[in-house]
Design a protein that fits this description.
By secondary structure, the protein is of the alpha/beta class. Helices cover about 35% and strands about 15% of the residues. The strands form 4 sheets. It has a 5-stranded mixed sheet, with helices on both faces. β9 and β10 form a beta hairpin.
Length: about 350
Amino acid sequence: MSRYLISRLQTLEPYTPGEQLNDRSYVKLNTNESPFPPAPGVAAALADTASLRLERYPDPGQHALRAELARAYGLTPDMVCCANGSDDLLGWSFLLYGSGGKMYCPDITYSFYRVFAQLFSVELCEIPLEEDFSICPERYFGLGAPIVIANPNAPTGLALSRADIRRILDANPAVPVIIDEAYVDFGGESAVPLLAEYPNLIVIGTFSKSRSLAGLRCGFVFANPEVISDYDRVRCSFNPYNLSSQTMAAAIAAVRDAPYYARCIREIIRVRALAAQRFRDLGCVCTDSKANFLFVSHPHFPACDLYRALKADGVLVRYFPAPRIDRYLRVSIGTAEQMERLFDSFINITKETNL
């Protein structure tokens, strides 16, 4: 770091993303990307450069994209704001509602929350998961400060029901309750239907997972119009042109081609079930994931050694060297063929006695 960096940021530990390696061909099951390409309409939208008017700035009000999302989710456009990935929106949530105060989240969850807390001077109060990695709703009752919960949670894949989210909202009427729904399309229950009842509910989603647009970076937040004005306030204080014309056109096309993505999601869920059973048949422990990944532990082989051995064999998975979860690997769900390649490697490795 330079000598000019302010002292408060000298101890900031940036988020560590999953490996994006190009030194060889890998079966890439480490960053929860979709194994399927975007819908055909997305490519057509990006190819239409004449209508994109790239010589002009993009629409700072994101009007067409907000209207399309509102139509798809049964909302009004003033209940929608979009950003350069859901991470921007999550970060702004910490800035808007936590700066100089507290926020609550599970102790095992999306590790970016800790970075946002440090970046925006938030005291992050972490509530322990249960022994089975589930979230106990009662632990979130009456906290008196904003709450952020990834649902389904990461890296466990476990999900709260909508009824449990409602209980948390009922017990915290005076503070924002932020539900990070990056993985909800793979088997979770969305909290979006609760928006009409709870003015303090904030739901954040992304196009990176179920809509196969991780490379274009688009996220969205749903909330009551007054809360959306908060997000627009900070968005326009950073960059009112925060989404490119290409990104918005691709996102609109993705929303419109819901049947294509529904087929992809069904296939991911099917392959996830088969892979979970396969891991269990091999003696592993698997959580009941409702996301597009599995959280897997082998009873006899350390997860860090399995991670390294799989990587050496051309298969990337995610390992987290953190308390309570350092015995587990997070394995993204790929195509059936990619998962077969994973299991070929996994079985060969675990047959060895000297990892």
